[in-house]
Amino acid sequence: MFVSSEISVLFAIPALDRGGPDRVLYELLARMDRTRFRPSVMVSAPTGHYLSRLPADVPVTILGDSGHRRDRYPALRALRQLWRARPDVVFATLRMQLTLGLIAPAFPRGMRLVLRPPTPYSADFAALIASSPIKHRLSRRLALATLRRADAVVCQSQVMHDDYRGVLGDARKLHVIGNPIDTASVASAAARDVAVRGSPALISVGRFWPVKGYDILLAALPMVRAPHPGMHLTVYGDGPERSRLEAQARELGLADAVTFAGFNPEPLPGVRAADLFVLASRYEAFPNAALEALACGTPVVLTSCFGATRQLVRPGFNGRIAEASEPAAVATAILEALAERERYTRADIIADVEARFGAGSIVRAYEQVFASVCTH
After folding, report:
1. Same domain for 155 and 260?
2. CATH code, domain carrying 94
3. What pLDDT score does 170 carry?
4. Under DSSP, is residue 176 helix (H, G, I), strand (E, B) or coil?
5. How many domains does the chain fold into?
6. Helices 20-31 and 359-373, interaxial angle, to 10°?
7. CA-CA distance, 231 to 243, in Å (whole number)?
8. Which range marks the domain in which residue 348 is found?
9. Mean pLDDT score of the chain, rounded to an integer?
10. What pTM does this model have?
11. DSSP readout, 81-137?
12. By the 8 A CB rule, do 94 and 14 touch?
């Protein structure tokens, strides 16, 4: 394939709003080397937090209005746009991964497809099939066909890499790249002083659905509260399980020890003010909320679940890992982290996360993938 001095890369995602994958794509679109790459973006939703913040030199194609069901998988409109734009590389994630993977055989000749799966394959489909066997067995087959058509697949952790290698039977197209963080932007966003209840003050940020394990976290808190009666957990988030979790907190006698603060579009000042950021996830691809907590200099407690959690936590330096996604293990990890709070240094935690996940180095890693698929 002949490649000009600039490689054109079209990024496809349902929306560029406030989600974790949305932020990853925004960092790529904003930071790619313009002497080597020409980025553009294709979305379904006409508005979004990061969409409105894109650099002026990034062309945007809007395929529809995400409020309509027919726009969830706009395959034909996407294909028409690809034939018009003819980018060298198409990069897709979330629903756009399946949309573009299915139409990949109809791409213009020489166009390359790079996918970024948002979740671990095995754990995610196991949960989905348990909830709806027929529907998600079909979607699993479609997802596998899509992955096999890709020229490269970006995994967010070594655990994901090993999972997808088992699925595909071949590691040659797999690349491990963590998520980027702009520590300077995080510092700016977190600079406002806020009060967070509790001594110690625990905080969490996430959607209320089973994979995030908030039921596990709540069940762990009585064990934490026994030696720390002034403990308080603030949770920024919302979702379908909120009423059930609120009822669980009351049943556990935690009504005065947990604040369900609702969705907060600017959670970082609270995260920075807390003593500890906690998640009790059943599985995670790459927990961006925990990455942002570390970029605030706040130590974290995460579970040793399927995903990138062990990649983030350096025990004794920036937090602790619970050895299982169950209440006793989570409580033990929180108590260990609280016991060693004096050992944690905010500046060192921030410097470490910048060295490992700084946006500049992560974007360079993505650029290497885009360049490599164009030389094959």
Report:
1. no
2. 3.40.50.2000
3. 83
4. strand
5. 2
6. 80
7. 22
8. 183-356
9. 93
10. 0.89
11. HHHHH--SEEEEETHHHHHHHHHGGGSPTT-EEEEE-SS-HHHHHHHHHHH-HHHHH
12. yes
